[in-house]
From TrEMBL:
This is beta-N-acetylhexosaminidase. Its EC number is 3.2.1.52. It catalyses: Hydrolysis of terminal non-reducing N-acetyl-D-hexosamine residues in N-acetyl-beta-D-hexosaminides. One of its GO terms (molecular function) is beta-N-acetylhexosaminidase activity. Keywords: Hydrolase. It is an enzyme of class 3 (hydrolase). Belongs to the glycosyl hydrolase 20 family. It comes from Echeneis naucrates (Live sharksucker).
Amino acid sequence: MKCPPWPEGRKLVHLDLKGAPPRPSYLHKLIELFSELGADGLLVEYEDMCPYEGELQLLRATEQPAYSRQEILSMQEFARSKSMEVIPLVQTFGHMEFVLKHRPLWGLREVAHCVGTLNPHKEEGLRLVMEMLRQVVDLHPGVNTLHIGADEVYMLGEGEESKLWLASPGRTVEQLFLTYVTKVAKAIKEAWPHMTIIMWDDMMRGMSLDTLKESGLVGLVQPMLWDYNPDLNVDITVSLLEKYHRAGMSELWAASSFKGSTSVYTCVTRTQRHVENHIQWLKVASSLPAGVRLRGIALTGWQRYDHLSVLCELMPVALPSLAACLQTLLHGELSVEAQSRVSERLGVSSVEVEVMDRRPAEETLFPGRRLAELIVELNALLSSDDIRYFENNMLVRGWFSPHQRQRRMVTPLITLRIHSQATEYLITLQQKVEGVKEEIKRLYPESTAQEWVEEHVSPVMAPLQRITEEVPVCIQELVP
């Protein structure tokens, strides 16, 4: 059933730059496409790609250069020329892996073995967070909205100082969370009185109405409720938004997903999954009671689940999904008309990247299309049973098992056949891999190409390579 289109409010595309940061030239092409597809803002999560200076310089990326100040200013100027607002996202409590992984900052962790959570009791930690925010605000002239993260604050309350704090009667982990975030929000308002502050909502979902009312956050922050599931529970989501509203948090946001939320290692985006997530969000928006409204929605495109996890899908394979999701918001469903708009704008026959036709790539229609096509082709090979489970096929299991290799008890005729097949697969894969690597390097730093291949290709190729190396050793004394 068709839903009402997304109500008035911002439609932000999330740029997660903690993995596969696009080259500046490609970033501009993406921003232009986002604008043409119906987005009117960017939620930019820099992490280590921000050119931090002074005492924060150690936070900069090492695998590839962080963006320069001029590159970030140029990105904002280009976005403004497309009438797109830029909202920086700076983590301030949880997901601080890119900060707390550095040895000089280990002492600021809540617990030693949790790299992501900041100790909320150390003034040095708050000072560090405020310096991060100060440098980011300085990099964004005229910025009036900040997203301070604060999601998934794992192990909170488990540190020794937190245990001591919680030992006082009536104190809870919920209050510990609220106390610290309120302190951050107040410090931001003191430094920049005009600043609007957004934060993720998940740490507040289980809190009572009274706890939220008494938290001190009312009037300081705007919760952004995130849910990326295609079967998002509409009733529960509506009730959560109502609770925040009754607590006095009348400015509310939603967050959906167009990529990066299927599994931690997904390689190719499934558009329908993400379209269904947006349809559920449309149902939420149309079910809200009078007086409760959403200021906007952020379409998240996670590049990693966190700073230390593997790469999710690269942006090119997710662009048909993003286009379909934005059109779904604009039309209330992924109608024939909406799909036609996507096909016309991107020059594709289907919104599913795996089955779109293979026309000659035209950068003006689909920036990164050639890479998307190559990744789909290579992923199909890597996922094929013949290649992925080569070591488990009948010939290898029956005539070239680990036991037989160790004792050189092999049949040369069959073993050479195994070697020939493994070699053929390796050559085919290597040809595809070289094309993908070269195309990735056109759009991303070389380190992204290296990481992508090591994560997605090397584990599949390694067994084939081992077999091709072991066959000659096993048969050298058996064949004249």
